[in-house]
Automatic annotation (TrEMBL):
Protein name: PTS beta-glucoside transporter subunit EIIBCA
Lineage: Bacteria, Bacillati, Bacillota, Clostridia, Lachnospirales
Provenance organism: Anaerosacchariphilus polymeriproducens
Intracellular or extracellular location(s): Cell membrane
Spans traversing the lipid bilayer: 106-135, 147-166, 178-196, 208-229, 250-273, 285-303, 310-337, 357-375, 387-409, 429-451
Main subcellular location of this protein, as a coarse class: membrane
A Pfam family this chain is assigned to: PTS_EIIC
GO molecular function terms noted in the UniProt entry: kinase activity; protein-N(PI)-phosphohistidine-sugar phosphotransferase activity; protein-phosphocysteine-trehalose phosphotransferase system transporter activity
Membrane topology field: Multi-pass membrane protein
Length: 607
């Protein structure tokens, strides 16, 4: 893959670097926040070499690259000067926050607040997994000091989650990150936390009642607080004298924002968080049914880029109950199902290129990167995608029954199976069983449903529908054909009055005068065969049609017969142009014969 060329073309198709407000990336996607979404030519981006798919989702423009996203992102930074673009974003932000975009932008903010801290959450989660493994192996006991300290290592990220989120929220909302972290720290201050521990329900500040709530692992109140502080800070920055701004600005931000946070935002966010937790409880109550349903829709979430919207919910699960028995388990099932379907395609297809793509995509999916399988194989072939959803539904229910539960937040794959080690150890056993079961079930469903195979190398070769002498279109005495305005192709001066089907497909259009016929191959290629010039004036006389509109045809089947001698006798030019009507859909159209050709002889190479 030529990263430099890809990035250069990508920048042109999204309105240039000046249209980029912010850009980040996850495991497989570039995620753009743009000033003007209308400047994007999405179809061109989707057709670029190296791009698996592109779409608008979650308030972002997402470009799916696959496993090479890191390299493409680095090249993007190099070419576009992303840091400079982001620094200037506040100057260009006016009038971009339209009301119809608010839901997507709010979701984008929430996702962006959590995405950067996923690696450290995953790291701490793996430490907790190690603790569980050491306990199950009886190497440590839950009363040992080593176990206690390891537990602190693993729990710290959740306890201080508000501070991490404050920093990422400030970066996303373009306000002071350190003052934001101080505000989050206030919620976690030992004196404030002690009041909650001692059972004190309320206190006051300047006679303003403040509800005592434990804010450990709470993210929502912090995000709302940072958003509020952004506007308070803008006002303070305008009125604050430069000579004292260095200390007065953060001081006033804290003195104004903190009371509002403690009195209103904190308790309100805590209530919303509690409802969030109740939703989690409901999902847990549904058990294996919830896992099956979530696994079935998970491919759709990945398809639309909405799977990252689950991050706050997953983090809530880990921070409140220490495990996730629904979403990560569903993700594991869906990932393996993508691999199983792609593997079935690899074994069943006769196309060597697709076989190689599907096989590598299957391996990638088993390792946790599903986009190559999703976009490059399963969605492209249609029925395998349906097999993924059905296989995920069945296997998700099985995983739920087996009690597969994640004890760390890591992208699920065969390499990360240790995250399911915890409790009494049955979860890990269930996960180990789930992987091959899911793969086999989805493989079998894909094989049973089948799919329409894509063109092989042989199908790139088109047979001649007419017998006679081959001439270039430029020699046709009709400017519409000679200029290739109607498409590329060739012309034949026929020696036999018969038109046969050059491929398997269907009749797209046949004129009442029978002098011309449009054909469509199974892969969508359109071919126009125009018998003679100005022969429309004959109104069908001396022509006999053996097909009608919409009829399925087989290669070599007779379509039209015409009285060649009579046409010549009447003085008609019998030169017959054969045109690829949708020329723009193909990168190469090559005429292989320059002299004479017989019926069904290969004459055209199209790809």
């Amino acid at each position: 893959m030529n990263y430099s060329k890809l990035v250069s073309e990508l920048l042109k198709c999204i309105g240039g670097k000046e249209n980029i407000k912010q850009v980040s990336h996850c495991y497989t996607r570039l995620r753009f926040s743009l000033y003007d979404d209308k400047k994007v030519t999405n179809e061109k981006v989707r057709n670029m070499e190296g791009v698996l798919n592109a779409m608008f989702a979650s308030g972002q423009y997402q470009v799916v690259i696959g496993s090479k996203v890191d390299e493409v992102y680095e090249e993007l930074i190099k070419q576009a000067g992303i840091m400079e673009v982001q620094q200037e974003s506040t100057m260009q932000e006016k009038n971009t926050f339209k009301s119809k975009q608010i839901p997507g932008k709010v979701l984008n903010v929430f996702i962006s607040c959590f995405t950067p801290i996923i690696p450290v959450i995953a790291g701490c989660g793996m430490i907790k997994v190690i603790c569980a493994l050491l306990l199950n192996a009886h190497i440590l006991t839950d009363t040992s000091s080593t176990y206690a300290i390891l537990t602190i290592f693993g729990d710290t990220v959740y306890y201080f989650l508000p501070i991490f989120v404050a920093y990422t929220a400030a970066k996303k909302l373009e306000t002071d990150p350190f003052t934001s972290m101080v505000l989050a720290g206030i919620l976690l201050h030992p004196n404030f936390a002690a009041l909650a521990t001692e059972g004190v329900n309320t206190t006051s500040f300047l006679n303003i009642p403040i509800q005592i709530v434990s804010y450990s692992a709470q993210a929502l109140p912090v995000i709302i607080t940072v958003w509020l502080m952004k506007y308070i800070d803008k006002f303070i920055n305008k009125i604050c004298p430069n000579i004292v701004k260095i200390f007065l600005r953060p001081m006033l931000n804290i003195l104004i924002t903190a009371p509002i946070m403690l009195a209103i935002i904190g308790p309100m966010g805590s209530v919303l968080g509690n409802y969030f937790s109740k939703f989690v409880d409901i999902m847990n109550h549904w058990g294996w049914i919830a896992v099956g349903l979530n696994a079935a829709v998970f491919p759709l979430l990945v398809l639309t880029g909405m799977h990252n919207a689950l991050i706050p919910l997953i983090i809530t699960m880990f921070s409140t109950q220490g495990f996730d028995a629904i979403l990560i388990t569903s993700g594991l099932v869906a990932n393996i199902a993508e691999g199983g379907a792609a593997s079935a395609v690899a074994f069943k297809t006769k196309n060597k290129e697709l076989k190689g793509t599907a096989l590598s995509a299957s391996i990638s999916a088993l390792l946790g990167i599903t986009e190559p399988a999703l976009y490059g194989v399963n969605l492209r072939m249609k029925r395998p995608f349906a097999a993924v959803m059905l296989g995920s539904l069945i296997s998700g229910c099985i995983a739920g029954i087996l009690g597969v539960t994640a004890y760390a937040f890591v992208s699920p794959s065969i390499l990360s199976l240790p995250i399911f080690a915890g409790g009494n150890g049955n979860s890990l056993i269930g996960a180990i069983i789930t992987v091959p079961v899911t793969f086999v079930i989805t493989f079998a469903i894909t094989w049973f449903l089948g799919f329409k195979d894509i063109s092989s190398e042989k199908e790139k070769l088109i047979a001649s529908p007419v017998e006679g002498k081959v001439i270039p279109l430029s020699e046709v005495n009709d400017q519409a054909f000679a200029s290739e305005t109607l498409g590329k192709g060739y012309a034949i001066v026929p020696t036999k009055g018969e038109i046969t089907a050059p491929f398997d497909g269907q009749v797209d259009a046949i004129f009442e005068t029978k002098h011309a016929i449009g054909l469509r191959r199974e892969d969508g290629m359109e071919l126009l065969i125009h018998i003679g010039l100005d022969t429309v004036k004959l109104n069908g006389q001396y022509f006999e049609s053996f097909v009608e509109n919409g009829k399925k045809i087989k290669k070599g089947e007779t379509l039209i017969k015409f009285d060649l001698d009579k046409l010549i006798e009447l003085g008609y030019d019998v030169t017959t142009p054969v045109i690829v009507a949708n020329t723009d859909k193909f990168s190469k159209i090559e005429v292989l014969h320059k002299t004479d050709v017989v019926l069904s002889e290969v004459i055209l190479h199209v790809e």
